[in-house]
Every structure is written in structure tokens, then in C-alpha cells.
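Hi,

I'm pasting everything inline rather than attaching a file, because the server keeps stripping attachments. The sequence lines come first, and each chain or strand is labelled.
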Amino acid sequence: MSHVMLHQDILPARILDGLLTCVGRVGLAKTTLDDVAREAGCSRATLYRHFPGKQPLLLAAVARDADRVTADVVAAADATDTLADAAGAVVTTGSSALAGHRALVFVLMVEPEALLPYMSFERGDALLANAAARIAPAFARFLPADRALRLAEWLVRMSISYLCSPEENVLFDDARVRTLVEDFVLPGLTQGVHQ
Amino acid sequence: MSIDPLTVRDRLLEATYVCVTRYGIAKTTVEDVVKQSGISRATIYRHFPGGRDELLRETVAWELGRYFTELADFVAGATDLADLLERGLVHARQSIRRHEVLRKMLDTEPERLLPLLSTESQRTLPFIAAFLHPYLQREADAGRLRPGVDIDTAADYLARGILSLIGSPGRWDFDDPTQVKDLVQTELLGGISRVKQSGC
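And the predicted assembly:
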């Protein structure tokens, strides 16, 4: 077996990937730090040096992937020319990223009790505020700052609502996303705004 | 005397509800429900084969149903859809705090309640949408909807928005009537109701 020298900056990312691979396979409760270390190809002691426990490891993985998803969402919106297309891109890009996240989907389907407290009530408010603040810049070209924030928050709410009712394929049907965005969400939020 | 099975079910849910208010969710046992309801353990398991977990889950669903029924009664006198949504949202937020069992669950075992508001929302969304449907129809008949609005789609959209707002108010302060009015007119009804004529 050949040993590859791991660059200092790459190892933490491999550990986070290892965690998500394990969680996507067996869930959060059954994933042990030994599993993660094995998956990342490092020792348990090395893993501990970077992440002192399962909870800090999990939080780091969530923070990293939240950064990634919101950056992808904003980039997709930036590549469009109209507000309607930008809003549609936010919904479809964000939804595909979340629905394609195996660890997230496993936890939501099999052990929702681990995740839902972070999505509802006071902590849900924090999640909404955080996601809205990250996504709002995608609408800065078209709307005043406060309207951009409101739009971002509302799109996040709608996307979560559809993602949580898995019988719905609305988010992966471009025509229905257009209906949602153009017919229901935008008319109110663009009222009185010159585009 | 024969007992309607629906009645036994309701009596068991009611008894479980009483036990939860008295002992909390974590401490409520099937034995407590036997004592409270006077219904045997065997009968309880016949109605709820999943035992304690199923009984508690169904009690939460039943209680949530009562919460929405009470909400529906509260807003029944609303003059129009906007009035209904404003009053409904304010009342929904206030009463979820007052509702003893629901609040206990939020405080102690949120994982039992939250799936009903999110991943199992297919149980609650159609209830809200069906309630809103006749109000939307009335708006349509009065010519107050934007042309081309599909009532079923609009009811589903509003139900999702309302359920989300009940779960997390986010940026909105439901004690401030101006904010609630703005939210209803903009996010909820902006694409559904005809725009009121304004100067610009």
C-alpha cells in the first residue's frame, strides 16, 4: 500500500468528505469517528487533532457545504439576465444541490429528528436569516436591498416546503418553477420597483 | 352496548392527551392511558399496534388537527381573504404558544411535532389548502383575483407559506399589524389578488 503525503490543507476536507460519505451510507447515529477516519485514510488521533469530536466535525461539514451550496446558487443566479431567471436559478440550483446531497437526504428521510430542530422555530429563524443573507446578493442587481432579502427568504421557505414533501417534483420541473416564481412570488415583491 | 371503533380511538387519543398534559410526553406510558381511559391494554394495542409510539404520534396529529380546526373557527368571520390571512397568521402564532400539549412537545420533544409540520406536511398542507379553497373561490367570483390564477395552485401556495410561517416566523413580527399586512399583501397575495390601484 503506498502512502501519499497529505497536504495540511487537504486533510480536513477529506475528513469532512469522509463524514458525509459515512452519513450518506449509514446515517448520523451509526457513524463513528473510527469509520470517518478509515474513510478519510487517517488515524483517529489525526482526526481528533482537526476535529475534537463528532459534533464539531458535523458542524464544520454543515458550514462548509452551506457555503458551497449558497455560492453555487448565487453563481447560477449571476449568470442570468432577468430577475425571474435569477429567482428560478436560485430555486432549481439550491434544490438540486440539497436533493443531491446524499448525507442530507439520508438524515432527512431516516433520522429527521436529528435535523428538523435546526429547521424550525427559533433555530429555523436563524437558518432562514442566514440563507437569505447569503442568497440576497443574487438579486442586488434588480431589487433594493430589503426586497432582495425578502425575496431570498421567501424562496428559501418555498424550496424547503417542497423539498420536505417528497411526492412533489415541482422543484425539478422548470415550467412549474417558473409558475411559482413569476406568477406567485415576484408580482408582490416587485411591486413599486422599477426594473 | 356496542361501541363505535371511531369512538374508542377518539377516547384513547383524548386520554393520551390528558396524560401528556399531566405527566409530559416522555413520562406518559400505555399504563397511564389504560387508567385514564378505562380501556384495556389489549384494546389499545388493537387500535394502535405500534403501542406507545404510535399512540403518541397519533395524539400529536390529532392535537394538531384540533389546532387547525380551532384556527379555522377563529377566522371564519373574516371579511375577505386578506383579512382571513392576517387574522389567521397572528392567531396561529399566538395559539401555538398557548396550546399546552403542542408547546410541551416543542419544548421537550420537538422531534415528535416537527415532522408533521415539515416532512409529514402532506397531512397538514391539504387541510389548510382545502380550508382556503372556498375563500379563494369567493375572491374569484368577486373579480378580486388576478386573471389566470388557478385556485388549486393558489391554495397550495398559500398553505405552504402559512405552514412555513407558523413553524418559523423568520424576519416577521406577528405582533406588528403593519408587518403582517405587508407580508400578506406582498409575499402571500402579491401574485394572487388584483393589485389595488395606486398612484405609481
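The two ends of chain B are 71 Å apart (CA to CA).

If the labels don't parse on your end, tell me and I'll reformat.
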